Amino acid sequence: MTTPSSRLTGHLITWLGSWPPDRPLLVTTSPGRAAPGWDGAVHPVVGVASPEGAVLSVPAEHVEAVQALAPDLEGLRAAGAAVGEALGIPGGRLFEGVFRWSDAPAPLPDAGEWVPVEDPRVPPWLLPFGGEVLMAFDDGGRYVAGVGIKVHDPYGQELAVVTEEAAQGQGLARRLVAQAARRVLERGAVPTYLHADANVRSAKVADAAGFPDRGWRILGVSGRRPVS
Questions:
Q1: What is each CA distance from 153 to 8, 114, 138, 221, in whole angstroms?
Q2: Average pLDDT, the chain
Q3: Single pTM value for the model
């Protein structure tokens, strides 16, 4: 029987190419850097950092150049535009956010229903997630909030939540996130939740839904690689 922690390890190995890091900063690659992701787009650079170290996954041809920039995450932060240059992304710079995961979603009551994306009530922002999406409706049957699941691989699935402005402040987002997290765990995967440092509202939702901030970071690089 797999546990959420073993699923997280499986997810990071599959998504990044290696986990845990064997040094403060491990630059590596994986087939996912050249293959379409959950949304059909290629995501050439992605990384995760824990208090023990960081793994940055980049296209295979850029591994050595990026690894040579710095021995640790602090050095990579200080490298500035050199990160983009090493990746062939003019002007690209490292960016970060909060990486959360849950093995015990908060025992909040369900707030929505699972709806196929073909349902005409599904708003445009939820369509790229495919499959089923979790939606909450008001007493008149109008959509007011929803969660989509980014299926990165069989082991890790990322939750994204949006609440319409008129329905904010009712606790819908935290209930929907906890409900969706339980569904992901039932599927045998681990639910993850990412947000920007400045997004205080999203941080509060994550805390309330059972996604503690463990000091982990999500890493990426701004800009796009030129199309050859």
A1: 11, 21, 33, 21
A2: 95
A3: 0.95
